[in-house]
Amino acid sequence: MKISVVIPTYNRPDFLREALSSVANQDRKPDEVVVSDNHSTVSADHVIRDFESIFMVRKVSPPSPLPMDQHWIWAIHQASGDYTAFLEDDNLWRRNHLAALEAAVSKYPAASLAGTATIPFSDPQQEEAIQKDTFAPPWKFNLLTEEPVGTSREEVLGTYLFCTPFASSAVMVSNAVFRKVDPKGDGSKYGRDRWLWAQIATMGGAAYNPKVTVLYREHGAQTVKTLQRGIYRKESAKNTRLIIELANSHGVSLSKAVSSLEGLITSKTARFFANVTVRTRNWHHIRTLVPLLPGKPSCRQAIFEVIRTRFLG
Q: Both 203 and 260 in a single domain?
């Protein structure tokens, strides 16, 4: 199995150095590393050169600057491996990340997408980080063994209807499927990853290794989300509409996609999904999706959850 690593970057050479260092420390070494520079005005060539003696690394750039989601897609197309592990330039991998992904797809070779769990941290210096809640799919697994679990395309598509189960830097895709699907960007500023990976997962489901192997750096660029909630809600509703259309185009009924979650999620997760859907303030999606959730949490319950979490903490 040949694993490529793709790192899109733009004007962050210091972060890129840390990202590449985390790749260099992997127990399972990558077969190639592709750094895709989206026409930075601050050169990172010196950073890339420092790693040329450690692994096979090459720099590529699109013909002209691209929106972020289109740049991600273009960059993955430059990889030559059987699988591509994706890493944003400001995030980091623990040393067992590639090994965990390889274990997941080895156990579930039909999966078109694989991922692990993520921990956000709030300080630029990871050795002094403040750990936050784990970002992971809401799927059940054995907490003692942490063995990889597999999900069908209906199950994973049902999850993507409501939320993003994986951080982008936790994702590995089958390159054969990626080229077959040739995913399209949606122009979203915040929801691009949800739509992008949903297109891949729809083809063969997902393999999930519940080990926490990714460190997601929270810094100024991420805090904008909290200041632009209206845009975020609008884009979330757009993602939901696109994924509904995706399900229909693949002959997967919404009822089947959502009902398949019943064995994977808890009633608390179902309420959370309803909460997320209500927050988009798109009443068509609320009427369409919330009644389909396992346990059928009503819109009234979901609205209560929004009020409770927003005003009562």
A: no
Residues 150 and 273 in one domain: no
Shared-domain flag, residues 73 and 201:
yes
Q: Which of 225, 245, 260 is the last residue of a domain?
A: 225
Q: Are residues 153 and 236 in the same domain?
A: no
Helices 220-227 & 229-249 angle (0-180, nearest 10): 90
What is the per-residue pLDDT across 90-149, written as a single tens digit (0 to 9) for each? 999 999 999 999 999 999 999 999 999 999 887 655 556 556 678 899 898 888 989 999
Q: What is the CATH number of the domain that holds 97?
A: 3.90.550.10
Range of the domain at 93: 3-225
Distance CA 256, CA 69 (A): 29
Total count of domains within the chain = 2
> Which tokens is 130 given?
């403040």
Q: Which pTM value belongs to this model? A: 0.89
